[in-house]
Write a structure and sequence with these properties.
By secondary structure, this protein is mainly α. 37% of the residues lie in helices and 5% in strands.
Length: 595
């Protein structure tokens, strides 16, 4: 069993040591409650404890703002009811409305959480510099690489989210008054700063970790972030170097996972596809409340499967997942795998792994044969033939669908999930490298990489031929670079990476320049919620009302789904809404901030 305890063993250590040395109390006797840097950060054991606390910053739900970023893009509906999100008293709904301001608590907390991470990393960096001469060089260098990786990571997140990349560079712990009132730097300066940190990490981190160290950064994680940062800036040749290293370097031991029981399940934590993962463990710090951002559990499962305030798939997402073409040559797609002439599964394997759908009667959910039998209280579909449409499914990546009878059955509480969160994985790197190839004229190279991911799921592959030959089905289309990009933009990146990483989907839409046009396209796209009739595991025929998403109604009763993107399309302002604003409390505190 993976040893989680090592990683966050020291999350409760004092974090303020060495902070504001110039304000040290001038007392005749030593204050037993005060610790300055002369009494701490004296050896690699102590800096390692500080480093562990810097990693623990990632435990905060606000580092990723997963729910808010999902509904800010086209991947989330902020409710379990329609036609409008409920309740509108929660500020998270403003992300769907595209009306969030600089006083929004989720924006403030995201900013604060990331800068908390840079502060903790800086403490370790400065302490390591102090003890360098007396330390084991190899261990010292690795700790410095980890600290700089984390500082680079948090600056990367801030640069991606806020103020067109013009953020405050936090390169040392504050000591003087000026340190507390730093101005923002240019986007280019921030890029150069965090890339230097990540390059140092890339040059000095190990390619793998021991079981006791899982969750700590590796060379492959640094390469992934560097490649991502260059891709985001359309520096494709530089991006290709790092992404290719992740894909081809055998020292990392990365590979796409094909065992479906190890994809987005607790059993699959730290699998061969995982590059960087946030580690949770409910057994540690049980004294902390569920809303303490240092707690070693996550609320992500609850946010995907609660009765309100959750992120659920919009109609287009549910429809896109279930209608991806399955490869009839892949035995996994058949109800009788040993018989390739038997009927195909109701929905593709990628859909089954990512999302619950009423048609997916072949996939157990919450220890039940399928989601429709999992829990009578689940708010899927309408409650009766005349009731309003509710939701069509749930995202599964963060839920404990493989362990409990429902999130409420978690013995630690519905909002205390121990399931890890994977920030980066190999499939994402394949798709990023495919984009680089498409943008630099290597269309077949792009198709080959996308098809590796699609083959894992048993989907029909793109193009006329490739490495799988006659063993797989290709769609027979002669693709251009623009056609490949359309697949990446509207199919394979959103469906493969839904709700993953740091603001992946919104960042993609923004860097491709299609946020508003995509909202406008979806605002004109109609879907219907249709009744679904099935025979349950007891042999009883059951009808679920207005639960199955279709483009064209069939013989079953149906209702038009209230459009989920008309309001975002109307409210999104190009040139204004692409980045989060610097929080109002930061602006009020710091007179030197510039926009």
């Amino acid at each position: 069993m993976i040893m989680k305890r090592f990683i966050y063993k020291y999350t409760s250590i004092v974090l303020a040591v060495g902070f504001l040395n110039s304000c040290s109390p001038d007392l005749t006797e030593t204050n037993p409650n005060y610790t300055d840097s002369s009494n701490y950060w004296n050896n690699l054991t102590e800096t390692n404890k500080g480093l562990t606390s810097a990693y623990a910053t990632l435990l905060s739900q606000f580092v990723l703002n997963m729910r808010e970023e999902a509904v800010r893009s086209d991947m989330g509906w902020y409710s379990t009811v329609r036609p409008t999100p409920f309740p509108t008293t929660d500020l998270g709904y403003t992300f769907w409305y595209q009306t969030y301001g600089n006083d929004n608590q989720f924006i403030e907390r995201h900013w604060a959480a990331c800068y908390r991470g840079t502060f903790r990393a800086n403490q370790v960096i400065e302490a390591l510099e102090k003890i360098k001469a007396s330390s084991d060089n190899e261990k010292w260098t690795q700790q410095m690489a980890e600290a700089r990786f984390l500082r680079g990571l948090f600056h990367f997140y801030l640069h991606t989210s806020f103020n067109k990349g013009r953020i405050i560079i936090d390169d040392h712990t504050p000591v003087t008054n000026e340190d507390f009132f730093r101005s923002t730097s240019s986007s280019d300066a921030v890029l150069a700063f965090f890339r230097a940190d990540l390059k140092y990490a890339y040059d000095n981190l190990p390619p793998t970790r021991t079981p006791e160290e899982l969750g700590r950064a590796t060379k492959g994680a640094a390469a992934t972030l560097l490649g991502t940062s260059y891709l985001y800036q359309e520096e494709y040749e530089a991006a290709k170097v790092y992404l290719n290293d992740v894909i081809t370097n055998s020292a990392y031991k990365y590979s796409l996972v094909t065992d479906m029981s190890k994809l987005f399940t607790t059993a699959g934590e730290f699998n061969a596809e995982s590059i960087f993962e946030i580690n949770f463990d409910a057994k540690l710090r049980p004294d902390l409340g569920q809303f303490d951002e240092e707690i070693l559990t996550t609320r992500a499962a609850f946010l995907c499967f609660s009765q309100n305030l959750c992120v659920t798939p919009p109609a287009w997402v549910a429809y896109a997942y279930k209608t991806e073409p399955m490869d009839p040559k892949d035995s996994r797609n058949h109800l009788v795998p040993t018989n390739l002439t038997s009927p195909l599964r109701n929905v593709p394997l990628r859909a089954s792994a990512m999302i619950t759908l009423p048609e997916d009667l072949q996939t157990p959910v919450y220890l039940a044969p399928n989601v429709l039998e999992a829990n009578p209280a689940l708010p899927m579909g309408a409650v009766n033939a005349t009731a309003s449409i509710r939701i069509f499914g749930f995202y599964k990546k963060y839920t404990n669908h493989d362990l409990y009878t429902g999130e409420g059955a978690n013995p630690d509480g519905a909002q205390k999930s121990s399931k890890n969160i994977t920030l980066n994985r190999l499939a994402e790197v394949y798709l990023m490298q495919a984009e680089c190839y498409a943008k630099t004229g290597n269309v077949q190279g792009a198709l080959d990489l996308i098809n590796k991911v699609r083959a894992r799921w048993g989907l029909v592959l793109y193009g006329t031929s490739g490495e799988y030959g006659s063993a797989r089905t290709y769609d027979g289309i002669a693709y251009t670079a623009d056609m490949v990009m359309n697949k990446l933009m509207y199919v394979d990146r959103p469906l493969e990476l839904s709700l993953e990483g740091h603001a992946l989907r919104f960042t993609d839409l923004r860097r491709w320049g299609i946020v508003k046009s995509n909202f406008e396209r979806l605002a004109t796209d109609n879907y219907y919620a249709e009744d679904y009739k099935f025979v349950n595991s007891k042999g009883t025929t059951i009808t679920k009302y207005r639960i199955s998403v279709v483009k064209t109604p069939g013989t079953m009763p149906s209702s038009l789904v209230p459009n989920e993107f008309a309001i975002p399309a109307q409210n999104f302002v190009e040139g204004v809404s692409e980045y989060l604003p610097i929080p109002s409390n930061e602006v009020a505190r710091n007179p030197n901030l510039t926009k």
